[in-house]
Amino acid sequence: MSSSAGSSPRFDPQAAAQQMLDLEAAAGQPPGAALVPAQTVPEAPSGPPPLPPPGAFGVPSLPPSLSDRGNARLFVQMHRDQFRHVEGLGWFAWDGYRWKRTGGEKAALWAAGEMAEEMPDTDPRGIFSNREIAQHKRRTLSTTGMKALLTQAKASPDLSVDPDRLDGDPYALCTPAGVVDLHNGHLRKADPTRDFHSRATSVAPQRMDTPRWHRFLTDTFGSDPEGEEMIDFLHLLLGYSITGDVGAQVLPFLHGEGKNGKSVLLDIMIQILGDYADAAPPGFLMDRGAFSEHSTELTELHGR
To answer: Which tens digits make up the pLDDT trace of 128-166?
Structure first.
């Protein structure tokens, strides 16, 4: 058997080079053109390098400038999902499903102090000296510095909320489990960037049998056709009451002899609705002339 090695054609480098040139010409490129796009080197950005975002790599950040304005910008960047400021009402803090007013002022002040304490002692960019940073931290940690920080931060579009937006959706019911769309009963998780609720029910919605509730209704209104009609109307009335819609202009009165379920019904609704319901003080609807203004009581009606 003869070997085929002797009959194999030898590699011709000149022919291979010509073949590559022919391929380039067929592709519309001039001979010697690069087969990959030319790489451009980006221009170096002017000015100092930007600071990393707060908490990047586990390292706290410095404000963009050593000033009250710079502190406010850093506070907004760090806490835009934790705090809101409502004109005329003050600071609110997010508690997982609503914006809570109680304790909001103290929480914002404490967060401002923690932010100042966690500022690094050196500037990784080398713009601010260690001495400048130390002086800035001392001033920021003072009560005056923290209040100045919050005064500017509350004007930020990311933190400022118009009072009309707070609890402004009449068909959104805030609960510990999320927000219920009262148009269709759908429940979704509360989002601090889109939901501005300060009121919430005390319990989360869930399907369950309520034999004790139905027995109370039949004991109170009866099980005859007239009683069933009254129970149906009561359910309609209570359902309407959890919306913020006042277009029907309904002011119901519960009347009857004592111990017929009026107080029990109201107590149950107040317990379930939580922040959305409350007992008005005596004489709230009465005209008292010069003393007819109920500023505190009217403020408490916000969102209810």
So the answer is: 999 999 999 999 999 999 999 999 999 999 999 999 898
Q: In what order do the strands lie in the sheet with 160-161?
A: 99-100, 90-94, 83-86, 160-161
pLDDT at residue 20, rounded to an integer: 52
Q: Which domain holds residue 256?
A: 211-300
Residue 70: which of 179, 186, 153 has the closest Cα? 153
* pTM more than 0.85: no
> Last residue of a domain, which of 101, 133, 164?
164
Query: Looking at 164, 197, 229, which one is the last position of a domain?
Result: 164
Task: Give how many domains the chain has, as a whole number.
Answer: 2
Long-range contacts of 110-116 (CB under 8 A, 24+ apart): 111/75, 111/79, 111/82, 111/83, 112/71, 112/75, 112/146, 112/149, 112/150, 112/153, 113/141, 113/146, 115/60, 115/71, 115/74, 115/75, 115/78, 115/79, 116/71, 116/140, 116/141, 116/145, 116/146
Rounded to whole angstroms, how far apart are CA atoms 256 and 269?
Answer: 19
Please calculate the CA angle 13-14-20 and round it to the nearest 5 degrees. 90
Instruction: Please report the pLDDT score of residue 5 as a whole number.
Output: 43
Q: Is residue 206 part of a domain?
A: no
